[in-house]
Structure formats: structure tokens, C-alpha cells
Design a protein that fits this description.
49% helix; 9 strands; 7-stranded mixed sheet; alpha/beta; Rossmann fold; disordered N terminus; two-stranded antiparallel ribbon
């Protein structure tokens, strides 16, 4: 009944671009032998701060995920144990237990720490979800205030921090209400973590404006793990080519024809509530949103770092990437509209903006 999201996405990409599939396999071999491409790694001073999860802590986390997250009917309409007994469900559970945390540790934490040290940094995390990113930040000595709109996810995030023996402050709120909860506080980072794509357009613009206002000069606004509206394939939500390019009304109707299980039957009723849930599942974001929110031309947006570019430099993979389909597509976008930071033309938006 269920398909692996990753396998389904790869199947559709290979069907669309079969020649490039062979090129990718060949390029990987070349990279290993000739280009000395390395795997992402975390610096020793950051690894030393990582907290392990005891068996008791893991049991607490699994129980909390089942009770508070996988029981959320808007995303998981099937009985919890039935879903988790499937291959997709088992991978989903493992993803929430440890895989997301390990990705954050290997990629986002080194990237952000390179921008400005995380030790003792004050961080407002918007869209903490079930808390993997909260743990990754807090274990580095950051003081984290974490916000999420889904109360069940916040319960898991609290339990996750308890299981890792870490502290963070949690607030149940929509992102557009942050100014009501955060008063007379300063932050070194405000991070939109995989959250902008789950907002309506009004929410997205208002929350970005509010966050930008909260920052003092020299502080950072971070957007990470957010799918790019300009990208040719939606690996995030529908697993369908060109889906982000469709107008919202057409994408809403077309969702039932997409290959992703659960998603293709989530909006059968054409109601206002279904349309809101459609937006909550995730739509792409592009530089146009930031132009409006920051009232600045795209060419002048104060981007100071991009995670993918940072990692390509650290792993010596830039030359290989430029030969790939994704690299060629990025180059085409840059050629069509030059002058915009390259990070706006990547598959995901992982960007740091510095407040002037």
C-alpha cells in the first residue's frame, strides 16, 4: 500500500531523466577515485558536545512520538501501529528518532557554527517540530527558545530534550504571533527550520517581517530545509515534477494524481479546511517572498552564507555537482536571472541573512 518516499522520488526522477541517471552513477565513481569527494563531517569540537540517547530515553521518545505525533490525523489518518508496521512507517519512525538529528549534526550545526559560534548563542527556533534540531542546537551550548504551531510535536520536543538531558523553552504559537510572546529579548539567530513552506502566504510574509524586526544589527536570520519554488521536482511533498510551478488552485486539484501515499488522498473534499491543510503540507518558497518581506530587491538581499555551498566546499564536491542535472539547472536559473545570490537557485533554501 505504501511506497518509500525516497524511492518513489528517485523512480520518477530517473524516468524523467534516464540519461542523467547513468551519468550520476558514473560521476559517483569518478568522484570517489579522481575528485577526492569527501563525506560531510562534524568538527571535533562540536562532536565532543553531542549527547547520546540511553535506552530508557529512546523508549520515552518512541512512546511520545506514537502518542503525540503519529496520531495526528491530518497527516497520519491510519491507525498508528498499522502505519508504523509498514516499511514507510518504520523508516519514518527511525527518521524521527535519530536520522534527522544526525543530519543536523553533520550539516546544519557545522554550517551555523561557521557563521557564528553556537556556544552561548541565543536562538529563536521557529518550527521546531519534534525537536531534533532543538537538541542539535542546545547540546552545543545554545540557549534555545522553540516555537511550533502543532502542540503534539511540541510535546515530543519536550520529551526529546528530557531524554537528552537538555533544556529549552517551548512556546505553542503560530509564527505570526512571535512578537506577542517574545518581548524585550534579543537573539543572535532566528531560525525558520523547515517551517516557511508550511505557512500560508500571509503567515509567511508576516512572520518574516516580525522576525526581521526582532533582530538587532549584526544578528542573523536563517532559513533552512525549505523547498525552492523554482525547482523542477518536488521532493518534499508530492514527489512530482513541476508541482511547485503550478498555481495553488491547480496543485490542490492535482494532488490526488501525485504518487505519494497519504498525500494523494488527503484533500479529497474540496473544502476551505482541506485547502488550509494543503498549504500546511508544504509549498515551495523563492526569493520573491523575501523581496516582499524585507522590502529589498532580490539582488540586495543580505545573504552571507548558504549551507549547500558551504558543504560543497568542505567536501570538495563542487566540480562534480556542476556536471550533474541539478548543477546544470542551477546554472540555467542563474543565467536567466543573474545577480541574485546562488543560494536562491538550489533545490532547498538554506540561507543566512545578516541584519545590517
Amino acid at each position: 500500500m505504501y511506497q518509500s518516499n525516497q524511492k518513489s522520488a528517485m523512480h520518477f526522477r530517473d524516468r524523467l531523466f534516464p540519461v542523467d541517471s547513468h551519468r550520476r552513477k558514473f560521476a559517483k565513481k569518478v568522484a570517489t577515485v579522481l575528485l577526492n569527494v569527501k563525506s560531510p563531517s562534524c568538527p571535533h569540537h562540536l562532536v565532543a558536545n553531542q549527547r547520546s540517547l540511553s535506552e530508557q530515553g529512546k523508549e520515552l521518545l518512541v512512546r511520545s512520538l506514537k502518542e503525540n505525533y503519529f496520531s495526528y490525523p491530518a497527516y497520519y489518518p491510519d491507525p498508528v501501529e498499522e502505519y508504523l508496521a509498514t516499511g514507510v512507517g518504520r523508516r519514518d519512525l527511525e527518521d524521527h528518532i535519530s536520522a534527522r538529528l544526525e543530519i543536523d549534526r553533520r550539516s546544519r550545526v557545522p554550517w551555523l557554527d561557521d557563521v557564528s559560534t553556537l556556544a552561548s548563542a541565543r536562538i529563536l527556533e521557529i518550527g521546531c517540530g519534534t525537536g531534533s534540531s532543538t537538541v542539535a542546537l542546545a547540546e552545543q551550548g545554545a540557549e534555545v527558545v522553540a516555537i511550533d504551531i502543532h502542540e503534539g510535536s511540541l510535546k515530543v520536543a519536550r520529551d526529546r530534550c528530557q531524554a537528552h538531558n537538555l533544556k529549552a523553552r517551548f512556546i505553542h504559537s503560530n509564527a505570526i504571533e512571535i512578537s506577542e510572546h517574545i518581548k524585550n529579548e534579543t537573539f543572535d539567530f532566528i531560525i525558520f527550520f523547515a517551517s516557511l513552506e508550511h505557512m500560508t502566504l500571509v503567515e509567511r510574509l508576516e512572520s518574516l517581517k516580525s522576525a526581521w524586526t526582532l533582530l538587532s544589527s549584526g544578528s542573523y536570520l536563517v532559513v533552512t530545509d525549505t523547498p525552492n519554488r523554482l525547482w523542477y521536482f518536488d521532493f518534499h511533498t508530492s514527489l512530482t515534477p513541476f508541482f511547485f510551478w503550478l498555481p495553488d488552485d491547480l496543485a490542490f486539484l492535482y494532488s490526488r494524481r501525485t504518487p505519494r501515499e497519504l498525500y494523494n488522498r488527503a484533500f479529497q473534499n474540496q473544502t476551505d479546511d482541506a485547502r488550509l491543510r494543503f498549504n500546511r503540507w508544504g509549498r515551495g518558497v523563492s526569493f520573491h517572498d523575501f523581496e516582499l518581506a524585507f522590502e529589498s530587491p532580490a539582488e540586495e538581499l543580505p545573504v552571507v552564507s548558504c549551507m549547500s555551498l558551504f558543504l560543497r566546499d568542505k567536501t570538495n564536491s563542487d566540480r562534480l555537482h556542476r556536471r550533474s542535472l541539478a548543477g546544470r539547472f542551477e546554472a540555467m536559473l542563474s543565467e536567466i536571472h543573474p545577480g541574485v545570490h546562488q543560494g536562491f537557485y538550489l533545490e532547498n533554501l538554506d540561507l543566512v541573512f545578516r541584519k545590517p
